[in-house]
Design a protein that fits this description.
binds nicotinamide-adenine-dinucleotide; N-(1-d-carboxylethyl)-l-norvaline Dehydrogenase, domain 2; 6PGD_dom2; 14 strands; oxidoreductase; Rossmann fold; 2 domains; single chain; alpha/beta; globular; Mannitol_DH/Oxidoreductase; mannitol-1-phosphate 5-dehydrogenase activity; binds D-Mannitol-1-phosphate
Length: 428
């Protein structure tokens, strides 16, 4: 019988004192920020889910320990011990205590794109919790802290700063403190980490030799770029390759347009062609051609050296096709209204300004529309989108819901409508 993973069983040291807090304990935090932090045994993380109670319970039983499996010719398996405590999001008193703790100097976030909105009064939200934590810290002593958003949101630090500014307005002392003592950096984060499948624990026991109720599987590639100033100390993430850069804009476009944009296209076009995973989709020559077409289009607008982009594209294609990473298209297809604007629309706008109608985006939008019309839509704006997509003017109204100017662009509306009438995307 396999043994349940614990710190002692995995030969990890004792849990480190908590000096970092994380909100959004999911698969990506475990494969990325917690992995980077594991290089510094003196930094422990208190990690909070948003609502999930099962995962923190499992991690608590395992003393925070879990395994990261990286498939390859031979699977690499690493036991990670940087999570010192795991909590359910509902543990509000503990959350406020942790954020008010002077020992805590860093708060990382992976809360999904949709969460970066100004909190509404009396409604629980990730931003509401961040604000409550910062207020508790300000009241307690006001020691500096740095926030590190790690979601696929362009200029995520600036977005977070503007949400905090707007929510803090009306309390001048708090505003002054957040401006002076709350550092916020922007990041580009990358490591393909699918949601663990239902067989993840069984697979972990077979490959890893431990019973692990919180295993995670991720690709070998990982990247973390950070830009901005920390107001206090931080874990030495550069030991594992994190890079601190002055200008993060071009890196953001490269990641969000080339990787995430292709993911979003593959999700909707791949589902339309009957595929289930990214690997299946890119092995279909028609969809591989769609990705290349999208990358040719995006390359016209990116401020990165052409040869560097060529290499990035080649590596990306291999990452998409890698064995052992089962990234479900249905997972990526969720929250389209939050993802398409960052991943496809900047390039579409630039193409429209140049008088062109980019075929890959037209196909992507038509497939997204079909998805909204026919699938079970997981999106914070699902009700509104489904109503528009099933109306008498589905293309125009759904595009208007996405972006008013695009929905009033008659040539674009006609092109998406023509594509939408075809039974499956005309690619390849
Ligand atoms: N998985 C990846 O490959 C990957 C790579 C780069 C960046 N990211 C970023 O990390 C985020 C999380 O990815 P994941 O794979 O860990 O997903 P996940 O589903 O495993 O975890 C998501 C976490 O966010 C919380 N959450 C969900 N909706 C929320 C909301 N509205 N408000 C606050 N919290 C919410 C969940 O409870 C959970 O703790 C993504 O949305 C993305 O922005 C993921
Ligand atoms: O995690 P999401 O839902 O924002 O997007 C789905 C994927 O495109 C994304 O997780 C990528 O795999 C990731 O961004 C790779 O670093």
């Amino acid at each position: 019988m396999t043994v349940r993973i614990t710190r002692a069983a995995a030969k990890l040291g004792p849990a480190a004192p908590v000096r970092a807090v994380h909100l959004g304990l999911g698969a990506f935090h475990r494969s990325h920020q917690a992995w980077y932090t594991a290089c510094a045994p003196e930094w422990g993380i208190a990690a909070y889910t948003f609502r999930n109670t099962e995962l923190p319970r499992a991690l608590t039983e395992q003393e925070g320990a879990y395994t990261l499996r990286v498939p390859g010719e031979v699977d690499a398996v690493e036991a990670i011990g940087s999570i010192s405590r795991a909590h359910a999001g509902g543990e509000q008193e503990q959350w406020l205590r942790d954020l008010a703790s002077p020992e805590v100097e860093v708060l990382t976030l992976t809360v999904t794109e949709a969460a970066y909105a100004r909190p509404e009064p009396h409604r629980d939200s990730a931003m509401g919790r961040v604000l409550a934590g910062l207020r508790a810290r300000h009241r307690a002593h006001g020691a500096p802290i740095t926030l590190v958003p790690c979601d696929n949101v362009p200029a995520n630090g600036e977005v977070l700063r503007s949400v905090i500014r707007a929510a803090a307005a009306g309390d001048p002392a708090f505003v002054e403190w957040t401006e002076a003592q709350v550092g916020i950096v922007s990041t580009v984060v990358d490591r393909i980490t699918p949601a663990p499948g239902t067989d993840a624990a069984e697979e972990a026991a077979r490959v890893i030799g431990f019973q692990d109720a919180a295993p995670v599987v991720a690709e070998p590639f990982t990247e973390w770029l950070l830009s901005g100033n920390f107001t206090g100390e931080r874990p030495p993430w550069e030991r594992r390759g994190a890079r601190f850069v002055n200008d993060i804009g071009a890196y953001t476009d490269r990641k969000l347009w080339f990787l995430n944009g292709a993911h979003t296209l593959l999700a909707y076009a791949g589902l339309a062609h009957g595929h289930r995973t990214i690997r299946d989709a890119v092995r279909d020559a028609r969809l591989a051609a769609l990705v290349q077409e999208w990358w040719d289009t995006a390359a016209r607008h990116i401020n990165v050296d052409t040869s560097e982009i060529g290499e990035y594209r080649r590596n990306l294609f291999m990452r998409f096709a890698a064995r052992g990473i089962r990234h479900e298209l249905a997972q990526i297809a969720g929250d389209g209204s939050q993802k398409i604007p960052a991943r496809l629309l900047p390039v579409l706008r630039a193409e429209r300004a140049a008088g062109r109608l980019p075929a890959a985006v037209v196909i992507g939008l038509a497939c997204w529309l079909r998805h909204v019309q026919t699938a079970e839509v997981r999106d914070p704006r699902a009700a509104e989108l489904v109503e528009a997509a099933r109306s008498r003017e589905p293309v125009r109204r759904t595009l208007i819901a996405l972006d008013h100017d695009l929905g009033t662009d008659d040539d674009l509306v006609s092109a998406v409508a023509a594509e939408h009438r075809t039974p499956a995307p005309k690619v390849g």
